Amino acid sequence: MKKTFLMLIFAGAVLNCAAQKINETTPEIKRGADAAQPFLFSLNTLTAENPRWNIHYSGSYGERTNGQFGYDGLGQQFGVKGYLGSRLTLYATAAIGFANSGGVTSAQQAEVIRDLVGGKGITGFRLGAGLGLSRDWSSIGSAISRITASFDQTNWRMAGNLRFEKAFDKTRDKLDFISSFGYQHRVSNVLYLGFEALGQDLEGFWEKDEAEGGAKVMIGPSINLEPNHSKLSFSLSGGPVFYATRSQVIPSEAIREIGSVASGNGYTIRALVNFNLHR
Question: How far does the signal peptide extend, from start to end residue (predicted)?
Fold first, then answer.
């Protein structure tokens, strides 16, 4: 846990120095709400005013966590996110995991989300809902749906998700619940600091045989750097993973941001580089 926070503090210091250097040469004031993907555990929708198409790469490291972005070892993810028009956002990813114990596995998912409230401009409140499909680390398919909410202003932003997942396998839970929330405040022209929280497999609070090992919670700092006049932006987040409940079932290989091991708490750190195809 100490290692996690020391690494995040060090990264924050490096990004702050970079931001100050950029500010010295480019004093332009940004609107602050047009980031393609500022958070790592909450998905925000795009608008016609956002950068329309982006590709990203994210890497993570975790111990005693397992799962998609909290893979026990080094995890990597490639993704695309774009605005389809009519307040529709496409989000698709492919993840690759290299386990500490050896071996390589992959997982994919794709979603289309539509803003039902707001979505015509990048500032203000937006509420959306979407559907998608995924294939997890053990090649089991799932239907997924997501509710997104966000509120963006010039100097701060927040976003939250509620995700539902139905796996096409009798050994899995009838329905999985995952929630997340993130907040960031602009501390300079290009640097944002805040926090992110994630609640995973929340059905573990009422199901004793929850298929992914029980309900888990993570909370930690969040950093986003958006240099002016650049196609690149950077995000970093992570923190300790706590088990709120425990199940005796051997954990499945469902796509998860954090742990799916039934014993011991751990931590995860995730970083993302986003490339805007249109800026």
Answer: 1-18
* Residue 251 contacts residue 265 (beta carbons within 8 Å): no
User: Do the Cβ atoms of 184 and 156 come closer than 8 Å?
Assistant: yes
pLDDT per residue over 50-79, tens digit each?
Answer: 878 999 998 876 554 444 333 445 668 899
Residue 173 binned pLDDT confidence (cut-offs 50, 70, 90):
confident
Pairing of strands 232-243, 266-276: antiparallel
Query: What six digits make up the tokens of 1?
Result: 């846990």
Beta bridge partners of 105: 97
Helix (H) or strand (E) holding 80: strand 73-85
Share of the chain above pLDDT 70, in %: 72
Instruction: Return the closest-CA partner of residue 256 out of 64, 63, 73, 69.
Output: 69
Q: Are 181 and 257 in contact (CB under 8 A)?
A: no
* 72: DSSP letter: B
Domain boundaries, the chain: 52-251+263-276
Is the alpha carbon torsion for 234, 240, 244, 246 positive or negative? positive
Q: What is the pLDDT of residues 177-191, one digit of tens each?
A: 899 999 999 999 999
State the residue for tokens 């529709």.
88
* pTM for the whole structure: 0.79
Contact 123, 114 (CB under 8 A): no
Give the phi and the psi of residue 187 in degrees, each rounded to 5.
Answer: -100, -15
pLDDT in tens, 111-150: 999 999 999 888 999 999 999 999 987 889 999 999 999 9
Check whether domain 52-251+263-276 has CATH 2.60.40.1180, yes or no: no
- Residue 244 is classified by DSSP as S
Q: What are phi and psi of 165, to 5 degrees?
A: -135, 130
